[in-house]
Amino acid sequence: xxxxxxxxxxxxxxxxxxxxxxxxxxxxxxxxxxxxxxxxxxxxxxxxxxxxxxxxxxxxxxxxxxxxxxxxxxxxxxxxxxxxxxxxxxxxxxxxxxxxxxxxxxxxxxxxxxxxxxxxxxxxxxxxxxxxxxxxxxxxxxxxxxxxxxxxxxxxxxxxxxxxxxxxxxxxxxxxxxxxxxxxxxxxxxxxxxxxxxxxxxxxxxxxxxxxxxxxxxxxxxxxxxxxxxxxxxxxxxxxxxxxxxxxxxxxxxxxxxxxxxxxxxxxxxxxxxxxxxxxxxxxxxxxxxxxxxxxxxxxxxxxxxxxxxxxxxxxxxxxxxxxxxxxxxxxxxxxxxxxxxxxxxxxxxxxxxxxxxxxxxxx
Length: 364
What we know:
By secondary structure, the protein is of the alpha+beta class.
């Protein structure tokens, strides 16, 4: 075989791989729209990282602890705070019921996001960017700039603070998306602040409701009120070989708390609990709430930011809406001094700047 022929074959292969790579960056939905019978190799995980999908339905399902927001606002608050603390320590996750957000707001958010993903690729692709700091970004995988194996996931990320600055950058199509996200982001921000107050109480950093000093509570919450918020709509197309890939690989969330609206019809969220992967059983009209890395740091390790991942389905597409909350960008996250003691000294890893975590742990 002549050297010239070998060089030509190698060049052709490199060109094919370049074209393939560009196609993957256009998103998994775009690939599926063109027709797929098998999972492309770019999405196939190493054998040991692939999901084990049990043939026995329910064998690995998990019912998360349930926190009733109505009880947090009534005479059962102290007891409910203890349940909240236990859930954050032992699971890092809980399901929130009676959360007070209108079903219409939730439905409008889901419908607007779904309509965005149904737009022609040419319209969706207007918002693709490698710049992870932009206020709106349509993308794919986990971190498409670094991933050697891609996740079976596309996403729309919308920065929500301050709304007046970011709103003009959001997609203008579908027509109802902007208003749906504005309403939903305001309601989830209010819900988040209620949960933050409960978390601070559960950690002993704020007096419980009947003994609370109003000024003390306001001082603690003020820094959270001006915090960051990101709405991330996740879309996971149906997958011809779901045992070879994942919608999202194992990760923890970077922020303080994440409020997730799961797909109630198609399960897929798994958390690592007691050394194994278990599938979360969604409760209708509830949020799945999880502890983020910043809360684990802030609590000096008392509350756990737990690894989780997403399975894909061979028959149905799946969608979820995540609202990620934390302190303002460029804040320094440290353990609360009140949670450091001789028995529980400060952990060296528990000091981080938010911007560093954003750059190193891109989950949207």
